[in-house]
Amino acid sequence: MQTRLQSAIDQSSIPARLDASDRAHAARFDAIDRQGAAMRASLESGEELSALRFESLRVAIDALRRDQAETVSRIEAAAERVSDALAGVSAASSEGATAGALLSRVDTLLQRLSLPLGNEVMLQTPDGFLLVPAEDRTLLAAVWESGGRLEPGTIKVMKALLREGDYVVDVGAHIGLTVLPAARKVGPHGRVLAIEPGSRVASLLRQSIALNFLGDRVVVEQCAAGDQPGTARLHLSDILGESSLLSLPTTREAEDVEVKTVDALVAPQQPVRLVKIDAEGFEPHVWRGMRRVVDENPELLLLVEFGPIHLQRAGVSVEAWLSGFNAAGFTPHEIDEMSGEIRPLRPAAALGSVASLNLLMLRRPLEMYPELLLE
């Protein structure tokens, strides 16, 4: 089957279209590089983009979109011909399903878009444009490969649960992979409080919010969330998303960051629909600093990253980590990152062997959330 599929693709115009697309984008990038060079100093210094430069960037993005749309349209037509050729193999067979999956994969790959901007790369995602630090090649490759959805199951669950006008707290907002979809879902009358301690990442996040015209609904707080106010040492990892207030075995750099509690950042009596916590092992501290928010919001939903390696560094057992949430009436559920399916949490004894899990924590039985019956 693979030989026949490859032969069909080779005989189609897809390879030529891909080459043409690459050449067109390369030519467009050369034209835009002059604008990118002019903007680079502003981006690197954290200076606000001027209206003129911002408009130039917007026009460049629109031009790329038009070029890409035409190229993709032609490639889609070629892919359709390949699909028709493969239909005779066996539409109902697993081979036919494999062919369909591969064609879908090709389609996803063709629709990606990136724009180098000095020390950053701007990537197009399903929810808007994201600035990714060029020096974090692991992150850049992962975001590119996933089409801007590193945790598609979690995002699917989050978007199913959020409603127009909701208030969301994103602890460990990073470059905005969960901020953008949340902001799109809550709409102009909703709010997302994005908490990110790293200066480099927080700066990129602010710029991404501006690029997507979401400043009316997203507030970025450059600080760490903890159980009491103060300062702390943020240990920087080569993979910026793994930077932590806990010591890292391979870290070479660190920066001092301000620490605030979620309770201090969220106004009293503010209804909060969802809190996402990704604090690289610092989750218990974040949790202790948001007890008022928890008490004031009986319908609160939690999305929490569970990472056994982080807990080992923090000297916290799996049972102790879970007990803090259980004591407040939350029941943890696992999220399948491929499908968004919600599953019962595996036994604590088996959790120590997982690399990482995103958990959905609910105060009510799962069946009382019909929106989670995802298609």
UniProtKB/TrEMBL annotation:
- Fetch the PANTHER family from UniProt: METHYLTRANSFERASE, FKBM FAMILY PROTEIN (PTHR34203), SLL1173 PROTEIN (PTHR34203:SF15)
Q: Where's the Methyltransferase FkbM domain?
A: 170-330
Q: Which UniProt keywords apply?
A: Methyltransferase, Transferase
Protein name, per record = FkbM family methyltransferase
- GO molecular function terms attached to this record: methyltransferase activity
Q: Which InterPro entries match?
A: FkbM_mtfrase, SAM-dependent_MTase, SAM-dependent_MTases_sf
| Keyword Glycosyltransferase appears in the UniProt entry | no
GO biological processes: methylation
Keyword hit for Cell wall biogenesis/degradation? no
